[in-house]
Amino acid sequence: MQNSNLNFDYKFGFSMPEKNVFKAKKGLTKKTVEDISSLKKEPTWMKEFRIKAYESFKKRKMPAWGANLSKIDFDDIYYYIKPTEKQVNSWADLPKEIKDTYDRIGVPEAEKNFLSGVSAQYESEVVYESINRELNKRGVIFCDMDTALRKYPKIIKKYFGTLISPHDNKFASLNSAVWSGGSFVYVPKGVKLPMPLQAYFRINAERFGQFERTLIIAEEGSFVHYIEGCTAPIYTTTSLHAAVVEIFVKKGARVRYTTVQNWSHNIYNLVTKRATVDEEGIMEWVDCNIGSGVTMKYPSVILKGKSSHGEVLSIAYAAKGQHQDAGAKMYHLAPDTSSRIISKSISKDGGRTSYRGLVSVSPGAKNSKVYVSCDALIMDEQSRSDTYPYMRINEKDCEVQHEATVEKLGEEKLFYLTSRGIKKPEAETLLVNGFIEPVVKEIPLEYSIELNRLIRMEMSGSVG
Amino acid sequence: MLELKNLTINVSDKTIIQNLNLKLEKNKVYVLMGPNGSGKSTLALTLMGHPLYQIKSGKILFEKKDITNLEPDKKANAGIFLSFQSPLSLSGVSIFSLLRTAIAGRKDPLILKEEIEKTAKILKIKKELLERSFNEGTSGGEKKKLELLQASVLNPKFLMFDEIDTGVDVDALKTIAQFMEKNKKGKTYLLITHYNRILKYVKPDVVLVMINGKIVKQGDYRLAEEIEKKGYAKL
Predict the structure, then answer these.
(1) Is the Cβ of A413 closer than 8 Å to some Cβ of chain B?
(2) pLDDT tens digits, residue range A276-288?
(3) Are A257 and A285 in contact (CB under 8 A)?
(4) All residues at 6 or more sequence positions from B72 whose CB lies less than 8 Å from its CB, including other chains
(5) Looking at chain A, which residue has its C-alpha nearest residue B153?
(6) What is the pLDDT of residues A384-398, one digit of tens each?
(7) Which residue ranges make up each domain of chain B?
(8) Which of A62, A407, B67, B204 is the one with CA 20 to 30 A from B128?
(9) Between A442 and A390, where is the model more confident?
């Protein structure tokens, strides 16, 4: 791997020539929002939803807490780009530049192996999608959000924006106003999907913010594992990724949502993710943030049904110039609910990680169990880690456990490993991968290999 | 095999070992005895290249090459091994991944895995210990056996065993002795110990007694017996 001290050395830092059919003007006005909606031939309610969201976005101030967002210039961003005229269903139909881009990040290879449903996103529109026949047969819907709005308007209207309102926070408002692409997943009652649904994301336009919108509905007793992995090319100026993900877990259903985020270091990754869980349902967020310059992301679970369970397992890695402000939110609203938050963060070469978590147990959520564990590993003196754990416990009859550790990479451990003939950087990587292992083991094999490889690459990039 | 010339070692600016001269030969078992704090572990850790132990003067020659200032990994790859007095634990790192990384590129991982499993069986190490976090929740005896397992797989030439006989039962002691007996040819052992216990099973060629950082006496196995009876004070 080659290194450069001047630029971010980013493995996927290449950019393909753009071939766009339509590109909205830079900056955001009410007109842009209306144009996006008209261009997509959306129903009136969606156009109104977007406009309301836009008004909210204009009114809201930037968050006064968390990471530094002062460099984001909302007037210097394209809010909509449509790369190709029509959706394509097979690999062969894709334009050559797009294929080349995917070749480089290895999508076809992964698909060859065992991806059953790839919904790959290029710029703001899903252009490539291969839906497993098996999914259709079982009544599962897995498509991009724009298609979903056209084909299933009733169900979209029923759920869209009901969990994360267009007025929720500034970036959710922005997404609601200009969203494009993302995935829609509907799993009928009792259907348990043995293979994960996967979507690859890719942004390829300078100053272009990606505002995807994902909605997952898991009906009673169903199970689905959704995986998103992202790589993005390098830019010369900042870029914004403000996504919204809403998940509805019905009675006895289980949804697992895994993210391996590796945006290039100039991206602001500001994502609102929330799930609501009915009786005996289970929601699990597995969230790995390796890339992006700034991340603010706190996957939330609203445990509203009796005996429901929520989990957030996360890894954050911050190297030079990066700030990963990530965490979790758990709302216990019903009796016998349980939750588990495990956060592992690593900061290196002046990087900064913050764990920011909220656990709320409402009156009446009797016999609830909460477990929070956040561990931070600091690799050197320049790096920083902070923990902001908030607890709002308004029910006496509940059990809350909170553990937090901060450790510096131990010299004795490094000596032990090097005394076995392991070079120091490799010993560090071994220890770091060991540190995040409790979370990594929850991720499907090909992703955990990728994750370990990313970490190794990041580590060796700064050592050598 | 190993030669120390006028070696002076400091730990946080305090001299622990001064002007030590020592020559260890091939195919021999040495025992280094001495009271607590006499500098035995300091010597072993320094020979392995621990960053906190500073070599103020003198030289370490290994197979006639100067290795005084080599990094620990280079010393290990040259054929030096230290079985730690209290091996630490590594969360999320199994002995498999540790050895796989250490041997990387030199052996097929599958062959390595078989070798580890085979050796573990001989050393009576429970199979589950190989998969889980290294030394987490393992007994003192198991820890020492895992050190031995690494010694076997890495196949070094010069082996230092720092108190490998503490915290282990008689069975483990026998296993350790058998291991040494089988892997004696072409190797040099330096056993650091307080007691005679292991010497019932391993017959040393040379017994060295260290007090206050100096080798004060040298002899054959009978010296160890003498120390057991009379203690260090009489020396």
Answers:
(1) yes
(2) 999 999 999 999 9
(3) yes
(4) A415, A418, A419, B48, B49, B50
(5) A420
(6) 999 999 999 999 999
(7) 2-91+143-234
(8) A407
(9) A390
